[in-house]
Amino acid sequence: MISCIVTPMPNWPPKLQRPCQPMNPSLLASKPTEVPPIPNPLSPTPRTPISDPLSPSAYRSVSPVPFHPGTPQIQAPVAPPSAPVGNVISVTGTGGPDLQSGVAMNAGTGSRPAPKRGRGQMNPQAPSGARIPICQMCGTPIRGPFVVALGKSWCPEHFVCANNRCQTSLVNIGFVEDRGQLYCENCYEVHLAPTCSKCMKRIKGDCLNALDKQWHPNCFICCYCSKPFGNSSFYMEDGRPYCEKDWNELFTTKCVGCGFPIEAGDRWVEALSNNYHSQCFKCTKCLKGLEGQSFYAKGGKPYCKIHSRD
To answer: 246 with 222: CB under 8 angstroms?
Structure first.
């Protein structure tokens, strides 16, 4: 791309000029011509996702003209590209980050509640006139002593570990409920408790499901700041999870004007080796919008024609 250069003139202000075609160095001394109004280089058409957001076809860079004190210079916007542009990092090519939700334990899809633990309570025969308990295992009325646990009743001989190879009585020891079945604590921890994908230890309490794996809630953390995600969502980048704060800080393109990320679908301007939301690209002094306009660069900042003289 050929940079646009303004030749200093005896009379102020200098006339704007922009070459219409490649120029021979010998022609640089020719008389400058005034620049007609420059159309808005940004198409209002919604952004079309691209497979490689960093490919040359995605956008064109505008190289600033070297600045010399006292000489206003033009930064001419590039011609409209053949396809809608957008300068937003996208891992999946869908125009936005790959957002996955790490759901809080015990709440909603993606989590597995901690197993219920307890001890059975032995009760004497139900008093006369009272409701006769029904055994949870055999489904028959219990006429003698019975065990109560988790709001249900069992015949004492049926209140045993659900593991067929164990069948240990749970009357005098603790039990663990998993998917509606009661197990002794040893069988649950050895055979049923899921393994944490990070520490590789058995998960005996709350279990978090994320990325098709199981985790201790305190083991599923941001790979950058090491904070647990808790109820928060997380972003995936190169197969690694990040919290929203760190993902935005590390991977998003930010507007120099407002400091906020330029997101998928946002109109944006690339000028002076920086990126701006279209509404943030303004004259540094009067704040007049410069989108689609010629402007002057002073100290690496954009100015309108009037305030470039200050």
So the answer is: yes
